[in-house]
Amino acid sequence: MPLICPSLMLTASSNTCSPVQDVADSCRTGAATNVIFGLALGYKYVIIPIFAISISIYVSFSLAAIYGIAVATIGMLTTISTGLAIDAYGPISDNAGGIAEMAGMSHKIRERTDALDAAGNTTAAIGKGFAIGSAALVSLALFGAYVSRAGIKSVDVLTPKVFIGLIVGAMLPYWFSAMTMKSVGSAALKMVEEGNDPTWCTCYAPLIVGTFLGVETLAGVLAGSLVSGVQVAISAPNTVGAWDNAKKYIEAGGVQEEHVKSLGPKGSDCHKAAVIGDTIGDPLKDTSGPSLNILIKLMAVESLVFAPFFAAHGSLLFKFI
Fold it and tell me: Rounded to whole angstroms, how far apart are CA atoms 225 and 220?
């Protein structure tokens, strides 16, 4: 899994591969088609990583149950130093390009920093692949610990309590993403004020569900948030990387093949459409996407800590129905 997820993200976000070139080509007809193609690419490249995560979970569970999943998580985290280095390269190269532009350096230097920046966008997506895969396994291991500590013998999806939890849990990553993206679009002071809003998802949701709806419903919430959160977190960096590198691909028209030159120079209609897509992607790349890893892990940790209390005093709502 540590090989498959980053490799696919490399293919989806590199400007030397056809997916990004297709997104760049879609800019011919405006920003709307650019956004549509970018979103479609992100959704499409969720498929194989999810299969890879599923196979890893199945094999690990078959060998040693939940303990096997925990060991698999530790095994994936052994590459964390490489993942951190890869992820750190992107902001460094991006800021180097910004410094070169503000300092008024020569066009040749700017071309080199743009090439490094494009590579940085790709490596950032690869680093997020490591983070998402490990977050999925960590959350599943914590989910198993919660079920054990809460004394739940089985999680039956056909039970109304659990099914309600699944639906609510699957909604939470979208609610969380909506609030984080909205905070980016506000002014600086307003953004600071709204930045506290997502704590409703992470801190209060497990407490409210566990206290009023019980441990079974909370198990469904954790499972639902894990399932939907991982998929949204995988699609976001792929989409954003494709938008960003499609813009870089068009900007490098003077040093690339004829296909790129036909898209027009910097400042053309194609380039303006690509800039719009890149601007839309910034909140996904820097806020919503990475924060979903924290969402699914923090909810699982909090539920594990309060599991004995929920088991003893939970289900207050169902006691009066």
Answer: 8
